[in-house]
Amino acid sequence: MADRSTTLYQGILLKLVTVLELTQKPEGISTLQARQALLQATNDFKSALLQAKEMAANMPGGELLIEDQDDIIEMLTTLRQRKREKLTQFSAQAQAVSSETVAETKMEVDSMASTPFHE
């Protein structure tokens, strides 16, 4: 759907430019052919606008009120912050455990180095 909507929205601008170019020609829309081209371009533009309106209305969450959307955004922001805090705590614990392991290993190596070799 993202590709279709992107193409649709980009096409709206191109269709509008076509309508504007047709209306701004020096000869105007005095000929039947020019009027037909303008009518076709205008209809294409209107059709694209209707499709875009339908697509926007059918987007997930589009039925929610702005206040409801704001509440959901706030809830998701809070959830993201909590997860970041948990990850920070987890990272600190992992670093502490890693530091302890390194220190214990170093103590063992130091202890072994100072102990005379026995067979």
TrEMBL record:
<dbReference type="Pfam" id="PF07544">
    <property type="entry name" value="Med9"/>
</dbReference>
<comment type="similarity">
    <text>Belongs to the Mediator complex subunit 9 family.</text>
</comment>
<keyword id="KW-0805">Transcription regulation</keyword>
<keyword id="KW-0804">Transcription</keyword>
<protein>
    <recommendedName>
        <fullName>Mediator of RNA polymerase II transcription subunit 9</fullName>
    </recommendedName>
</protein>
<keyword id="KW-0010">Activator</keyword>
<keyword id="KW-0539">Nucleus</keyword>
<dbReference type="InterPro" id="IPR011425">
    <property type="entry name" value="Med9"/>
</dbReference>
<comment type="function">
    <text>Component of the Mediator complex, a coactivator involved in the regulated transcription of nearly all RNA polymerase II-dependent genes. Mediator functions as a bridge to convey information from gene-specific regulatory proteins to the basal RNA polymerase II transcription machinery. Mediator is recruited to promoters by direct interactions with regulatory proteins and serves as a scaffold for the assembly of a functional preinitiation complex with RNA polymerase II and the general transcription factors.</text>
</comment>
<comment type="subunit">
    <text>Component of the Mediator complex.</text>
</comment>
